[in-house]
Amino acid sequence: MSDSAQTDGAGVPAARPGPPYGYAAAKDALVKRMRRIEGQARGIEKMITDDRYCIDILTQIAAVTTALEAVAGKILEDHVNHCVRHALSSGDEDIADEKTRELLDAVFRFTRTR
Q1: N- to C-terminal Cα distance for the chain?
Q2: FRET label pair with 87: which of 11, 49, 55, 111, CA 20 to 30 Å apart?
Q3: What's the pTM value of the predicted model, to 2 decimals?
Q4: 74: which strand partners?
Q5: Full DSSP string of 48-110
Q6: Is 11 within 8 Å of 104 (Cβ atoms)?
Q7: Which residues contact 106 (CB under 8 A, 6 or more apart)?
Q8: Tens-binned pLDDT, residue by residue, of the chain (114 aa)
Q9: What is the CATH number of domain 22-111?
């Protein structure tokens, strides 16, 4: 690695301008979505406590799962467009290889079958 390509603790070049992660611009919206999901999860807990119908509970679980997948997709998209793109354009092959492996691991983690 060259002297000008020092990295932060995550292996991303420290000299880049702007926020540290790609999702930073959408942080408020992501937090709002996560709070909504948290409320939905609490609603599911209440449904179980109240002995609600199985299919109604499963429907709500599916909605929470879909909402979480949407948040994950947004963070993954921002990761590719910010962190991975920066690593690939840095000229540092080790950083590019690390971010490529990291990206593939994340994709495989989210595409595993149940």
Answers
A1: 41
A2: 111
A3: 0.73
A4: none
A5: HHTT--HHHHHHHHHHHHHHHHHHHHHHHHHHIIIIIHHHHHTS-HHHHHHHHHHHHHHHHHH
A6: no
A7: 76, 79
A8: 333 344 555 555 444 455 578 888 889 999 999 999 999 999 999 999 999 999 999 999 999 999 999 999 999 999 999 989 999 998 999 999 999 999 999 999 888 854
A9: 1.20.58.1000
